[in-house]
Amino acid sequence: MMRRTPMKPGKGFASKAAPRREYDPDRVRSTPTPSKDFRLARPIDDHVEPVEKEGVIAEHGVYMQLVRMLPCAHCNRHGPSQFCHADMGKGIGIKTDCRRGFPGCPECHALLGSSGKIPRAERRELERRYGEQTRAKMLALKLWPRTLPLWREK
């Protein structure tokens, strides 16, 4: 439909918003109150300190950069890889030791990390094996950084 005359000021389209309800004091009085069995949650008054993991080096920039230059541990694709942290032993906001990490292309990093397509036990075994192969390769190529202590299995 084409409008031949302009709209009058203040006469726009009708609002589709729900009409605003007026304050009803009887409605407030009829709101049910909690029964005597209802208890509010007790406030937490214990202060919890975060506990650092012993001997964990989560971020060693030089080592991680060197690992990124290796081909993907899962599909062996060459080119710059991503650094994949192992999941075993991680926590909320805590990454695992970078010496257990391995190189992965973006597709394999997502596959091993968050896709859920590989069962947990199999994924843990792959992460362990890829980390071991990566450490062996870094030592064989004499690329292990002097500032990074060698990994010791616990």
What's the short version?
The protein has 154 residues and is mainly α.
Descriptive report:
This protein has helices at residues 25-29, 61-68, 106-113, 120-140, and strands spanning 82-84, 102-104. It has 154 residues and is mainly alpha-helical. A two-stranded antiparallel ribbon has the order 1-2. It is elongated. It starts with 24 loop residues before the first helix and ends in a 14-residue tail after the last helix. The model has no long low-confidence stretch (mean pLDDT 77).
Give the % helix: 25-40%
Trace the largest sheet across and list its strands: 1-2
N-to-C CA distance: 79 Å
How many strand elements?
2
Biggest sheet, open or closed, and with what strands and sense?
2 strands, antiparallel
How much β-strand is present in the residues? under 5%
Helix/sheet category = mainly alpha
| N-to-C order of helices and strands | HHEEHH
Q: Work out the helix count.
A: 4
Descriptors for this entry?
mainly alpha, 154 residues, two-stranded antiparallel sheet
